[in-house]
Write a structure and sequence with these properties.
By secondary structure, the chain is mostly beta strands. It has no helices and 7 strands. It has one domain.
Amino acid sequence: MELDASTTADGERVYIDRKRAERGAEGPFYLVFTDADADDRWGFACGNCDSLDTAMDTMGRIQCTDCGNLRKPDEWDAAHE
C-alpha cells in the first residue's frame, strides 16, 4: 500500500491513503493515518483543497473547515437539524 506523507499544522507526520475515500460535495475526503502501515487512523484530508483541517460529528458528517467541502451524515432525520 502506497500512502502520501504529509505534515499537519502542528508538525505531526501523517499518511494519506488516496485509494480509500468518502464522497464529499466538492471532492473526496481521503483517510489519513498516523503510521505508514495504515494501522492507526488519524482523520481525513480534503480532496478539494488538500487541507487536513477537517471535522467529523457524531452522525458521520465530515466538513473541511478551510473550503467548506461537506459529506452528508450517514443517517439523517429532521430531528437532528
